[in-house]
Amino acid sequence: MIGCGPTTDGCGADAMPAHRVRLITFGLMKREVTVSQYRRCVAAGACPVSNHAAECNTMHLGRGAHPMTCVDWSGAQQFCAWKDWRLPTEREWEVAARGT
User: Fold this and answer.
1) Pick from 86, 6, 83, 88: nearest CA to 38
2) N or C: which end of the chain has fewer CB within 10 A?
3) Rounded Cα–Cα distance for residues 11 and 2 (Å)
């Protein structure tokens, strides 16, 4: 439920985290991986070719600077490994998406 927190009335017990999690400092990119960045990984043989559905950015000319779309979790993992990165954990993503 959006807006539920420790001091919010009306939230059920299932809206609260099951347990506390400690995080060490982590970083995320400010921008999404672009089509051009992902294409370099494909060209290096480290990433799979993405789905070529009509709605995917890779299917449209001039979208090299657009965010990469139509990549599954495995493809994202392979891209991160190629860059010597890793995907964020669920908790890291929640903290980053929430902001300060």
Assistant:
1) 83
2) C
3) 10
Tell me: the pLDDT tens digits for 12-29? 666 666 777 788 888 888
Give a three-class secondary structure readout of 5-62: CCCCCCCCHHHCCCCCCCCCCCCCCCCCCEHHHHHHHHHCCCCCCCCCCCCCHHHCCC
Report pLDDT digits (tens) over 65-100.
999 999 999 999 999 999 999 999 988 888 888 876
Token digits of residue 43: 């060209």
Nearest residue to 65 (alpha-carbon basis) of 57, 53, 74: 57
Q: Are 84 and 78 in contact (CB under 8 A)?
A: no
